[in-house]
Each structure stands twice: as C-alpha cells, then as structure tokens.
C-alpha cells in the first residue's frame, strides 16, 4: 500500500525533506553549466528545493514541479520563486495532454524510490512519455536506503541497483544510459548510497 503523501504534508511528517536541494544535483549543475535547459519536469517535487536549484542555474529554463499532494503544492506556492518555475498538482502516471512529449529534461530525485517497485516499469513509460524524443532523464537513484528503520521490501524508500536500472530503462528499448557515477556530494548519511545516472530517451 502506498503512503498517503498528502497526509504526511498535512501532519508535517516529511523526513525525506532535508530543507535544501539534493547535493548531487547542485554539484552536477555546477559542473555542467548550460546543459539542463529548455522545459524541465521535476516529479515528486515536494517543497521545490530541487526546482529552485535548477531555476537558479538557468533563469530561462521553464521548470514544472509536479506533486500528487495538494498540500505540498499549496505550501510550495507560498515560497518565493527564483525564476519562471511553476508548480502543479498531478500524477506522473496520468499526465494531461499538454505534458506529453513536452519536456527536454526530467529530474528524478525522490519519486522512483518512493513508488511501489511493482510500478517501476510504469515509471519508465511515464517518463518516456513526458520527454520529447531525444530528451534526457537525469536522476540520483537511492541504491541503499536501508537501516534500522527501513529494510528491503519494507519501504519506501525502496532501493535499486545499476543492474536494475539497466534492465528497466535500457532493456525496455526506451532509454540509453549516457553516464553513471557515484556522486561526491550527498546528504548526511547517504555517502556511497546513491548513483547519478543520465539517460537519453530513444524514439
């Protein structure tokens, strides 16, 4: 059973929100100036920390932060914008017509690890459908979120592996992996537990 994400925001129980953008994203943007441009989708945007980091890196980028929680969207709209970013309540798995083949980039941070692993093939299709042909998916994927509180099969968060990412994304014929590496920057406690992966949508 999926958590009630909106209830989490209503109760202000959001342990995944660190109050700042993902360090691997900030590092990637600094090392790849001018790469993430155009129209960008951030699914599961929460309170928009990553959205604002991307907006600050390119003031011309049109960034859409998407979240299934109406409370999260209400909260994030109260935060001053950095550029022309905007936020929208919605479901990645049920995007409206105007968001199909509409994005040059998708930034993945906390969505893939939060959904039921049985939905991961649906996630691949949803992101492929959101991207324009040749568009890019960049994500920091949580390899090992397990500790005393979280065990395999008991997430979210749910872990993954490079082998699974290759199987789900590349073997589907929908993406090719362009680059992958362990990020040098991470939230406290996540060193060596995440993988940055850049992929390109195949036609």
Could you please describe the fold and organization of this structure?
With 203 residues, the protein is an alpha/beta fold. The protein has a single domain (20-201), classed as Vaccinia Virus protein VP39 (Rossmann fold). The chain is 25% helix and 24% strand. The chain is built from six helices and seven strands, in the order ααβαβαββαβαββ. The protein has helices at 5-10, 23-31, 49-57, 70-76, 120-130, 162-170, and strands at 39-43, 62-67, 86-89, 103-108, 131-142, 175-181, 194-201. It has a seven-stranded mixed β-sheet with strand order 3-2-1-4-5-7-6, with helices on both faces.
Percentage of residues in helical conformation: 25-40%
Identify the CATH homologous superfamily.
Vaccinia Virus protein VP39
CATH class: Alpha Beta
- State the separation between the terminal residues, measured CA to CA: 33 Å
Helix and strand sequence: HHEHEHEEHEHEE
The whole-number mean of residue pLDDT values reads: 93
